[in-house]
Amino acid sequence: MLVSCGQQNQSSNGALSSSAAEKVYVAPGEQDEYYAFLSGGYSGNLTVYGLPSGRMFKEIPVFSQFPTSGYGYSEETKPMLNTSHGFVPWDDAHHPDISQTNGELDGRWIFINGNNTPRIARINLSTFETEEIIEVPNSAGNHSSSFITENTEYVVAGTRFSVPIPQRDMPINEYKSNFKGSLSFISVDPEHGHMDLKFQLLMPGFNYDLSHPGRGKSHGWFFFTTYNTEEAHTLQEVNASQNDKDFIAAVNWKKIEEYVNNGGGTKMPANYAHNLYDEGSHTAMTTMKKEVLTVDPLKVPGAVYFLPTPKSPHGCDVDPTGQYIIGNGKLSADLTVHSFDKMIAAIEAEKFDGEAYGIPILNFEDVLAGQVKSGGLGPLHTEFDGKGNAYTTFFISSEVVKWKLGTWEVIDRKPTYYSVGHLMIPGGNSRKPFGKYVVAMNKITKDRYLPTGPEMEHSAQIYDISGDKMELIYDFPTHGEPHYAAGIPADILAPKSQKIYRLDENEHPYAVKSPTDSKVVRDGNEVHIYMSTIRSHFTPDNIEGIKVGDKVYFHITNHEQDFDVPHGFAILGQNSSELLIMPGQTKSSVWEPKQVGVWPFYCTDFCSALHQEMQGYVRVSPANSEIELKWSLGE
Ligand code: RUQ
Ligand code: CUA
């Protein structure tokens, strides 16, 4: 810590004394080498950056309403935010993970978890749009999520807080041995990516903090760190730190899958939302699911084991070979590395050190591969470069420590500014990492940027890790609070990025394929306006016959078929956001005029030299007026 503080004072020239500036400089017109997707934490979103430039390309709305695009405000996207608790337009998103094939990034989708109202989202990596959100029942603080198995068979979601399952009214102090922790395995359809909650493992009432899949030799297993094995229900900061060791839970999901496929498990009533966005109609639909298949681990012998791990471990990371499982005890200085081979040998020899709620506990020494005497404080997360090295973050001593797998020796350490949480190497959670850069995501910014009042954006730092020693080369502010991130080479994603939606493939029920089909239809007090738009007008742009008390739906189809030419739409007094409509897309907004008058609407996206002319009027008459519906353009 003292070392890092000493270096900190010289950091302004420290980082730039080498050729650091050159290493991050992506000249105007040039493109970055990697995409980095940073979770937005309490923004509920996902942000897209370029590496090494640190330039932010886009914010993708996921669990939060987003006026910039109208996500969560438009009629088509509102259903994405439905849950069993009603419309929940916010969440806390932590861990993005990119889909894989044979343990390598395939760049089809990225998944991310919502913690607070447990949900998992899937984002399409050619449209960069959220396509699906599934709620996770029987979960609370969905934190050990959303990590995927090496052929994207499952996206896995573990509960952080244990709760009564099913939920019921009971005294809090009866937590111990009554509350349970659910680990959910959500299958992913290999062709379309559609998610389905296949089974839920009901575990003892610990906190399940983080998780990662086995890979290579350990494919078929999943590992979860636990804390609060004390099962304390109050003053956790003291009461959940009593045990010298907690566990990593090793789950053989292949075994459970087989059990379930043979009719095993118990169906339990549940209530959770499954929201799916349809590409053809550009519209999301919610289905409420009523049942979940639960599995009692004791009914599947050989499926779940506990690996003792010191001291309230946080991160749970698996190296690219699948051999080493690293548990970072956040209250311990040393890192614990378990060996998959040793774990299997101990299981086969049935060498157990007792059990917890019937689940066998392995001997710490039997499964230990080694310990890294890190010299750091507060280890949290580990990533890998694919060259036999691991990189671990230390929150308290604010540093990244590089160490060698197998010999456990520390090779290098560099300070972060300050209090780093996760770190990310593109592909660092796969069989094939791209070990050129590591991005550290920090919790405290303080003096790094110009002050902006009491709150500063969080910061991220890029280190060049191509040599033996890490080199800090860049520092940039982030959006929300990024926890984990996922990176991927640009040449996997960029070529398949979608440019437009084809108008002839638009299946939206209110789409207007030709401006001559534009119309206004009244149905009681509901009015549907079928509108089209192209540079630089709306069709129609004058509408009369609307009355106070009407519910007016604007359904707008963007007739552009050119890359990067969205049009926007907003009308005075609208109780939601604008819309941003992509070429070929139809989007809808509701307006309930409350006052008579002539109200303007306009395009919100500066789309052409005549963008300011892109406007129209709606005449609103008293509720009892006899004015006929009438619409026109150019009359
Ligand atoms: S967490 S800073 Cu939400 Cu992944 Cu460890
Ligand atoms: Cu269309 Cu501005």
How do the strands and helices of this protein lay out in sequence?
Blueprint: H1 2-8, H2 11-14, H3 20-24, E1 34-39, E2 46-51, E3 56-60, E4 82-83, E5 86-87, E6 97-101, E7 104-114, E8 119-124, E9 129-135, E10 144-148, E11 154-158, E12 180-188, E13 195-204, E14 207-213, E15 221-227, H4 236-239, E16 245-252, H5 253-261, E17 266-278, E18 283-295, E19 304-310, E20 313-318, E21 324-329, E22 335-339, H6 340-348, E23 352-356, E24 359-362, H7 364-367, E25 368-372, E26 379-384, E27 389-394, E28 399-404, E29 410-415, E30 420-424, E31 437-442, E32 459-464, E33 471-477, E34 485-489, H8 490-493, E35 519-523, E36 526-534, E37 537-539, E38 542-547, E39 551-558, E40 567-571, E41 579-581, E42 586-591, E43 597-602, E44 615-621, E45 630-632
The structure holds (dicuprio-$l^{3}-sulfanyl)-sulfanyl-copper (RUQ) and dinuclear copper ion (CUA).
